[in-house]
Amino acid sequence: MPSVSVFGAQWGDEGKGKMIDLLSRDADVVVRYQGGANAGHTVVVQGEKYVLHHIPSGILHPGKLNVIGNGVAVEPEKLLEEIAGLRERGTIIDPEHLQISARAHVIFEHHKQLDALAERWKGEGRIGTTGRGIGPCYADKAARTGLRICDLVDEDDCRKRLTAVLAEKNALLEKVHDAPTLILEAELEKALSFGRELAPFVCDAAATVRRAYREGKRVLFEAAQGVMLDLDHGTYPYVTSSSTGPDGIAAGAGFPVRDVERAIGIAKAYCTRVGEGPFPSEEHGSEGERIREAGHEYGATTGRPRRCGWFDGVAMRYSLELSGADAWIVTNVDVLTGFDELKVAVAYERAGKRYEDLPAELADLDEITPVYESHAGWTEDITAMRSFEELPEATRSYVRWLEEVVGVPIEMLSVGPERDQVIPVPAL
Ligand code: IMP
User: Fold this and answer.
1) Ligand 1 interacting residues, C-beta cut-off 6 A
2) Average pLDDT, the chain
3) Could you report the per-residue pLDDT of 26-42, keeping only the tens digit for each?
4) Radius of gyration over alpha carbons of the chain, in Å?
5) Residue 364: pLDDT over 80
């Protein structure tokens, strides 16, 4: 795998952390290229749980270079906490194993406050953000008023830029939101101290990644969130503020599109979503509750209960096609054990008309209902199984049926949180 993109194909929380940890065994460099501490990538190693927010999931394998690309919105305080937490547990974090792009944008206190205030302002129309300041930070990036990691390590530059930015943000806090203002000197002191701590890791990350690739190193691009939350192609406005699929790699890692050789989508065997927005196959009743409890579907970053529902074949076809996926991986297959009947949305219906494709308009998406087909479930515990042949007949035929509905081959199944709880799926 000289270069591979691994991305979430649903609404986030597909179990990317575990799969990227696993796939990064075969990589030399692992690169995060978008999102920020809104992500919580969970990896379980020998019963120990790690939740990564900025640092690529390759960090738990010794000897890999992990890169935080320019497209990531970095919350320095959280990142430093993450570094300290990993070091405490024996993970080596030094500039040989972790590099941060000088061009990555920084999340400040005002971004987090404005994120919460904007949500309050929106009332019923709120997005249900993670509250980590993601939207306001990317908005400042686009407005060309953001500060980047390189600005934190240069005291004069930091002072000049933060003074100008905070004057405007304080006016916004005070005059629009009637909220307390932030004190420039305190914010500046924090920013400079973060800059000093992060300085050893700061580099031209894009050049590092391109050089590594040129030298024949294997590069894995780790996405956060999922394609259905993509700023352009997701269920706008109920999305995050970055490009969550492989198309984000060029901008967010400074790596040419033509050199991304494979794309692998990650999806759960059912669907979940946190926050507001359309979710055609959501189950509001006892089936949704049963999936939530069986899958422990509570947010890794916010602890919020996730909305749960059946696998959505229409959304999956859309997201894999959009992303040019070569294959996909199905996670949490074990969660479906014990259900008599497994439903999959194979099409949508609206006003008596059948739709095979995801409608582009949010209003249309709100009005559709899924057309379900069912498959028999299984009762056997599959968590200790390691080969496709070992799986119950119903599980195997369910997996083959998913491949047929979606039209893209499934490469692997995940049947539990541990690294080794995976099953390769033979090609047909
Ligand atoms: P934001 O990214 O915090 O602005 O949140 C925007 C939307 O994306 C909200 O619906 C969040 O719940 C959702 N979201 C953001 N990050 C994640 C994630 O890592 N997993 C699942 N949903 C996410």
Assistant:
1) 12-13, 38-39, 127-130, 132, 134-135, 224-225, 229, 238, 240-241, 274-275
2) 95
3) 999 999 999 999 998 88
4) 22
5) no
